[in-house]
Design a protein that fits this description.
One of its GO terms (molecular function) is carbohydrate binding. This protein is 30% helix and 25% strand.
Length: 227
């Protein structure tokens, strides 16, 4: 009887030890798998963060050098979506801000500080060109001038208005026509023609929309005015 009891005890102990060993191995495997998954996710997150493209001001494609202002702008889309003007990550004019309208939209910016001076729009279809001319004449030297059309920006333009805009550095203003899309960035007192200008003619054979050409977009880096 004593021998049988001892044998049962040995078997029980052996079963306990075997069970403990199996459980510990399974637990260790699960811990290894969990840690492996954790490290894998951490590595993937690190790779994702390192490969995510950087975002530059106004969403432009590359960073501007020092003493330059980043800008991005787009003309209106037909007579549905208004133009948008962004400078140094600040949206100056847009449909969301409710400060754009049919015609030529204008934002004036201090060329030294980048501070916004004024935003206006002038209806060149049903409006009067005279207030626009007075506005252009009043722009101070050293002011950055950003312009974008919406719907029609040309019908009421006359030679005087076109000449004043040309003096800001525009080359396309002389032949801007009915419902053309146009964006421009120049400055008062500029000595050369501006490199920042895009223009698409209204052409029924190539228009993206029924009566209007496609939206024109432009981005770049404006040199800060130095003393």
């Amino acid at each position: 009887m004593r021998v049988a009891g001892a044998a049962k005890l040995v078997v029980a102990v052996a079963v306990f030890l075997l069970t403990f060993y199996v459980i510990s191995q399974v637990f260790e495997i699960k811990m290894d798998a969990s840690l492996g998954n954790l490290f894998a996710r951490s590595a993937l997150d690190s790779v994702a963060r390192s490969t995510k493209p950087p975002r530059y001001k106004c969403g432009i494609s590359k960073a501007c050098p020092e003493k330059h202002f980043a800008f991005k702008m787009a003309s209106g889309a037909a007579n549905v979506v208004g133009p948008k003007i962004c400078l140094e990550d600040n949206v100056l004019m847009s449909g969301v801000k409710n400060n754009v309208g049919r015609g030529i939209n204008v934002a004036l910016v201090n060329g030294k500080t980048g501070d916004l001076i004024d935003t206006r729009y002038f209806d060149m279809w049903g409006g009067n060109v005279a207030p626009f001319i007075e506005f252009l004449k009043a722009i101070q030297d050293g002011t950055i001038v950003l312009m974008g059309t919406y719907d029609d920006g040309a019908t009421k333009l006359n030679d005087e208005a076109r000449q004043l805009i040309a003096e800001l550095g525009s080359t396309s203003i002389t032949h801007l026509g009915f419902r053309d899309n146009w964006v421009f960035c120049g400055g008062k007192g500029i000595k050369t023609k501006s490199p920042f200008e895009q223009h698409i003619k209204n052409n029924k054979d190539t228009n993206k929309y029924e009566g209007w050409p496609e939206v024109v977009e432009m981005e770049g880096c404006i040199p800060q005015k130095q003393d």
